[in-house]
Amino acid sequence: MFENNLILNNTNLQEVEVQEQDSENYTLIEINARKYAIKTKDVLEIVKVVELDYSHQMPSYVLGIIQFEQNPIGVIDLREVFKKERIIYDLSAKIIVLKAGEIYTSIICDKVYDIKKLNPKNIKEIPYQQEANFFDGLYSKNDENVYILNIENILNYTKRNADEFQNQDNKLKYIVDDETSREILKSRKDFLAKVAFDVQNQTALYDSGVSFSINDVKYYINMASVKEFYKVNNSKFIKVPNTKDFIYGLVNIKGEYITVLDLRRFLNSDKTELKEKSTIIILNSEEFKLGILADEICESMDVDFNEIIQNRLHNQEDNKMMEFVKDNEIYQVLDVEKLFQDERLAIA
Question: Of 16, 81, 194, 246, which one's alpha carbon is 20 to 30 angstroms from that of 63?
């Protein structure tokens, strides 16, 4: 791993103190006008609702089956688990693919509206919880109340109480079923299958994410690719001699050395200058400890993935970044998987 090489080849590096951040990144969602949160590190993918598969003897809390990377995964309707009135989900609904412990699952929600770092001091225990303990606590600050979901406990509860969730009508659907919607849902499903099948060109399904800026250029990164954000003013960089000029340096975050990539320099432009709002975007990877340097985190946003797909198919033979236009602004799409595979990083 290139970040390990940096450390091993520079034994005289002095460790610097960095302000400890106990906060953790959460993906915030909404169901039935109530706000919930899931640890972002457990989120594998966020996609718009697609055409689902159905099987016989499917429990009522499973809305249907989604094929994710050629694996069937049940889509849990938390409205049924929480004993709330169920609805017919429209095209704006989102499916969140998760890894709960060693189990892959997914849930459907009305919308994904933010990715946010929550301070544990503002997360309180919920009194009088049911035996299931669906929640790890309640985040409360500035009149905002967010329930922290415990997906493992939800899955365990549904297994222990399977008799409660007998599907009375296997043909009952809770997804929009008009002709136009069916065509859109099917096209999304076909695209998801194509991405999973085409391993060499496999790219995450860009949908919900965050935008950031570097030297007045706007970039977009899928929310599932982000582990956390870290303000540069909380950090001190260790400059590493004899490394590529796009390596800004090392930073110690929570006892781990993170290699910080100057993306602007990596893309053959000038070196990034630190600013008041400069932020390190730490990428979500078990293999690499890598962050990228951004001038500013701009906003959470949803993207029409069809625009990105079209651009990708036209440009897949060259080395250009994908792009799309939203609100008359051009965004460059950061493909994290492609970034990790770049040989320049392997020898940095």
Answer: 194
